[in-house]
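My current task is to audit a protein record that another person submitted. I have pasted the whole thing underneath without changing anything:
***
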Amino acid sequence: MSFAAGASGGFAAFTGAMELFGAESEDVQEAQKKLQAAIAIATGVQAIQNAVQKQSAIMLGISRLQMAALSKAQVYNRLVTMQGTKATLAATIAQIRMFFWRWHWLRLWGL
């Protein structure tokens, strides 16, 4: 973008010099029209660049939010997995106790 701004600035200096040194009025007017067109193009390109940069910033913000949400989801997934592991372990211990209790009861009664 700085190239377009620099080029239009250089063109403005050129048309100013033409007018200062007494160039033909029609030539100066034609050069000024081209200058205005170059400035309009540069302004339009700058506006497009600004819009793209804003959109890029928005997309970067959305990406950061997605990463934060993913991180939280992974933390909750680990917690749920740990709780599931604890529950499985507790159920296994309860089953083992129940087996030994029944075995002891059957042995005690001679069955």
About this structure: The chain is about 95% helix and 0% strand. The two ends are 94 Å apart (CA to CA). The mean pLDDT is 79. Residues 90 and 96 are 10 Å apart (CA to CA).
